[in-house]
Amino acid sequence: MESAIKTVVTTFLSSTKGKDSLEGGAFQKLVKKQFSGMMEDANCSSAVKEMQRGLDADHDGKVSFQEYLTLIGYLANSASERKAGPNPNAS
Ligand SMILES: [Ca+2]
Question: Separation of 53 CA from ligand 1 center, angstroms?
């Protein structure tokens, strides 16, 4: 569990390249690299851009750590729903 949290943090930090937020294509790259197994749309750049706009709560065009956590929370939530669903052996 602790290592999972560390991974969430270090993945963000290594993707921002020293900045406070994920800028430009950094968010797309992160999603493609890290979430293609969990997200059907990870390799669809228009879907990922749409997702980035949805996460960008303060509309500054960048994904802050807080906004990135929204995505992590969403993914964790959908993973738990999948486990609790009618067919737990589906994936
Ligand atoms: Ca933002």
Answer: 9
What is the per-residue pLDDT across 42-91, written as a single tens digit (0 to 9) for each?
Answer: 999 999 999 999 999 999 999 999 999 999 999 999 989 987 766 555 55
Task: Quote helix, strand, coil % in the chain, to nearest 5.
Answer: 60, 5, 35
Q: How far is the CA of 57 from the centre of ligand 1 (A)?
A: 6
pTM of the model: 0.85
Alpha-carbon gap, residue 21 to 76, rounded angstroms: 21
Q: Let me know: does 59 contact 16? Beta carbons within 8 Å.
A: no
Residue pLDDT, tens place only, 17-47 = 989 999 989 999 999 999 999 889 999 999 9
| Cα–Cα dist 22/71, whole Å | 13
Q: Measured between alpha carbons, how far is 83 from 91 in angstroms, rounded to an integer?
A: 9
- CA 43 distance to own-chain centroid: 13
